[in-house]
């Protein structure tokens, strides 16, 4: 099944890793722009500066000496997220969904002490989860309260939407759904489900977990066939604006849906993975080449979206 699907994708313009690196990342992403997206704190500040919505920042721990401020930062907060500024692949993210005095609880119900959280932050500072193992800083954010429409497609975690953007044009998208296998994280390599989305409608194409096509969520049993992302054009606008403020030509924008605030930019990735092609059943190459062949690309974000909606509908959805 995998070999057959792989051949079909190659015929449909599957983009390989080397081609992605040489023809798109190296060519369209200037090296001086990488630090902005490789550091989540810098990304958050840059997005906020141009009035793009992001999860609220509660505080930053930048050195071991600042660990003493942790109790003050957490005071009064029943839920929050702690993450490394320079982490990758979802590593080092601690989600606390509940609290009873000095006892903290993960979405799974596992209990944490204040000392355990302090130790976790200390590991972040020492670079345990960061790119290249370099010393890092810890971000403390509000816990996004997930949109109820997407909650049924997730297990003990928050699903997010990855949108690939090329020269400002949204070209491909998928929903990443946490499972028990992925420990409530939207990490495809750990067992989360990738659901390809039609870039023109935000509706499900197919769902894949561990290289196998599935029809329903393995934990909740909810079928993916009826999945439709609300306010889809708004998400495409946010993804398009990520090109504008990062000046990256090829990127992945990760968005979460908060039930109160709506879509929020979670992070921007200068080296987005290629699994999105498997989940969508469509290759990226033809869409990227379509945009490369445009004579003029300096369009307003809404014009870029209109172009994508017109040219990148997925044929033969299932």
List key phrases describing it:
single chain; 318 residues; alpha+beta; D-amino Acid Aminotransferase, Chain A, domain 1; Dna Ligase, domain 1; 2 domains; seven-stranded antiparallel sheet; four-stranded antiparallel sheet; 31% helix
Describe the overall structure.
The longest helix has 15 residues, at 232-246. The chain has 2 domains: 2-52 and 147-311, ATP-grasp fold, B domain (D-amino Acid Aminotransferase, Chain A, domain 1, 2-Layer Sandwich); 57-141, Dna Ligase, domain 1, CATH 3.30.1490. 31% of the residues lie in helices and 23% in strands. The radius of gyration is 19 Å and the shape is globular. The mean pLDDT is 90. A 7-stranded antiparallel β-sheet has the order 12-11-10-9-8-13-14. The chain has a 4-stranded antiparallel β-sheet with strand order 1-7-2-3. It has a 3-stranded antiparallel β-sheet with strand order 4-5-6. The protein has 318 residues and is an alpha+beta fold. It has helices at residues 2-11, 17-28, 34-38, 40-49, 70-74, 114-125, 148-151, 232-246, 275-280, 285-292, 301-311, and strands spanning 57-61, 80-84, 94-96, 98-100, 103-105, 111-112, 138-141, 160-166, 169-177, 193-197, 204-209, 212-214, 250-258, 262-269.
């Amino acid at each position: 099944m995998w070999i057959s699907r792989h051949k079909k994708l190659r015929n449909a313009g599957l983009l390989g890793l080397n081609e992605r690196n040489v023809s798109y990342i190296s060519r369209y992403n200037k090296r001086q722009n990488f630090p902005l997206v490789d550091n989540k704190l810098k990304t958050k500040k840059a997005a906020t500066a141009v009035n793009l919505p992001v999860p609220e920042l509660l505080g930053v721990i930048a050195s071991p000496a600042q660990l003493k401020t942790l109790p003050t930062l957490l005071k009064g907060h029943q839920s929050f997220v702690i993450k490394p500024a320079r982490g990758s692949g979802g590593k080092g993210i601690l989600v606390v969904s509940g609290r009873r005095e000095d006892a903290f609880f993960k979405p799974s119900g596992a209990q944490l002490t204040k000392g355990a959280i302090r130790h976790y932050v200390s590991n972040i500072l020492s670079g345990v989860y960061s790119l290249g193992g370099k010393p890092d800083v810890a971000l403390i954010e509000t816990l996004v309260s997930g949109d109820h429409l997407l909650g049924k497609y997730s297990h003990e975690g928050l699903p997010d939407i990855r949108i690939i953007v090329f020269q400002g044009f949204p070209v491909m998208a998928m929903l990443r759904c946490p499972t028990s296998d992925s420990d409530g994280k939207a990490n495809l390599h750990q067992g989360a489900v990738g659901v390809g989305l039609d870039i023109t409608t935000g509706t499900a194409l197919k769902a894949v977990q561990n290289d196998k096509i599935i029809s329903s969520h393995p934990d909740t049993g909810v079928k993916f066939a009826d999945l439709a992302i609300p306010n889809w054009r708004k998400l495409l606008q946010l993804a398009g604006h990520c090109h504008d403020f990062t000046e990256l030509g090829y990127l992945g924008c990760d968005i979460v849906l908060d039930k109160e605030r709506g879509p929020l930019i979670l992070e921007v990735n200068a080296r987005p993975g290629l699994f999105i092609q498997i989940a969508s059943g469509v290759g990226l190459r033809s869409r990227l080449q379509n945009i490369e062949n445009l004579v003029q690309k300096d369009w307003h974000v809404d014009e870029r979206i209109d172009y994508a909606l017109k040219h990148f509908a997925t044929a033969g959805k299932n």
